[in-house]
Amino acid sequence: HSEAVRYFCSKDVPALFLGGGGYTLRNVPRCWATETGYVLGLSLNPNIPEESEYVGYYGPDSTLHVRTSNMENRNEDSYVQHVIERISQTLKDHVRPVGAQISANYFLDDSVMDKSDQIRALLADEEEEKAMDSSGDAEDADGAGRFEEISNRNRG
GO molecular function: any one (predicted)? Predict the structure, then answer.
């Protein structure tokens, strides 16, 4: 786990580290303390303070180091490579670079699409009203007032 953190930090790119699963209660805080220290460039004391109210959770010893187990690594190299390739392809397919232009095939989520549909409907209604009443308000002739109403409605 720490090797993965070190790898991404070495690439000098923005990163967000999220937890996974499979750790024991006494190893989770050790793991995250060690990795947070590494990300921040801090060298942490390897001994957990005895005065900590949680020191009992770290038994049998009170050190920050997570002891490696003697569990056999049964992950086959081909499987690990397959996972890396899938993650890489997913990132290529779905992650857009910051500041990149959004292409025509970029899909918006449902909430944005719903709001867009509402705006289109209001603009269409506005056009109908203008056709019926040629004396429409010049300030709101383009439907801007209704657009603001929809786009600001959920800002609370």
Answer: histone deacetylase activity, hydrolytic mechanism
Q: What is the pLDDT of residue 102?
A: 60
Report CA-CA distances (Å) from 6 to 9, 40, 44, 66, 127.
5, 11, 16, 16, 58
Enumerate the β-bridge partners of residue 47: 63
Nearest-CA neighbor of 82 among 94, 72, 73, 90? 90
Please state, rounded to an integer, the average pLDDT across all residues of the chain. 73
46 vs 101: CA distance, rounded Å: 47
Range among 45-49, 77-81, 134-138 rated most confident:
77-81
Domain-wise residue ranges, the chain: 2-69, 110-153
User: What DSSP assignment string belongs to 77-107?
Assistant: HHHHHHHHHHHHHHHHHHPPPTTPPPPTTPP
Joined together, the tokens standing for residue 128 give: 């109908």
